[in-house]
Amino acid sequence: MALKVKVNKRAITVLAIAGLVIIALVVSRGGDGGDGPGTMDAAATQGCDDFNAGYPKAGSESSRLALADRVSASTMKTGNDAIRNAAAQVGDAANETSAEWKAAGDALLAACRDAGWAR
């Protein structure tokens, strides 16, 4: 038994448009997969600005923790995975040695600069 399928121009057009929409969605969602620097949004900019302003003055453990909390509050709202992850590392390093704190801070500022933040 043979099945005849009749395809008209309208069906082809609808399928082609649906295919393009699906491809566009896949490409747009894969744009910031965390592998690259990402882009700056308001939350990332606020976190980078806060950290940059407070970093030189954060010498004691309590001031490091306060700064890390302030930065984390901003960066947890960002869509930039690199900055959000670097900010989490700053929070983890706040109780650690000065070398670990400096390394985490430098990594956060580098992630900020890589994403286009300039201060």
Could you describe the 3D structure shown?
This protein has helices spanning 9-29, 42-54, 61-75, 81-93, 98-114. The protein is an all-alpha fold. The N and C termini lie far apart (73 Å). α2 (42-54) packs antiparallel against α5, α3 (61-75) packs antiparallel against α4 and α4 (81-93) runs antiparallel to α5 (98-114). Helices cover 66% and strands 0% of the residues.
Question: Would you summarize the structure shown here?
Answer:
The protein has 119 residues and is an all-alpha fold.
Uncertain segments: none
> How does the major sheet shape up?
none
Portion in beta strands: under 5%
Shape: rod-shaped
Query: What is the radius of gyration?
Result: 23 Å
* Coarse structural class: mainly alpha
Rounded average pLDDT = 84
Which percent range fits the helix content? 55-70%
SSE topology string = HHHHH
Distance between the termini: 73 Å
Number-wise, the strands total 0
Number of helices: 5
- Oligomeric state, counting identical vs distinct chains: single chain
